Amino acid sequence: MNSPSLLDKTYNVIIERMREAGQAPHYTEIASALGISVEGAREALHELMALGIPGIWLSHDTDYIGSFAPFSNLPTQYRITIDGEKKWFGQ
Asked: Alpha helix locations (H) across the chain?
C-alpha cells in the first residue's frame, strides 16, 4: 500500500479541523499539523485547490479556505447540527 501524499495529508488535516472546530484551518495551522514549513503548507493548499475538486475553493484572491465540501467556512443559510451541536455551515 502506498503511503499518503502531501496533498492527501493536507486534505485530511482540513476536513478533520472543519469537523472538530467548525472552521477551516489557516495554512499556518496546516504547516504545524503536518510538520512542514509555512510556505510548504501554503503551496500544498493552493495545489490541492487547483485540482478542481467540486465543492472546495479559496475565498477570492486569498489564502483562506472559503468552502470545503460538505462544509462552508463562510456563514450560509444551511446549518448543520450533529448530536445537538450546531457549529457548522453547509454549502
From this structure: 6-21, 27-34, 38-49
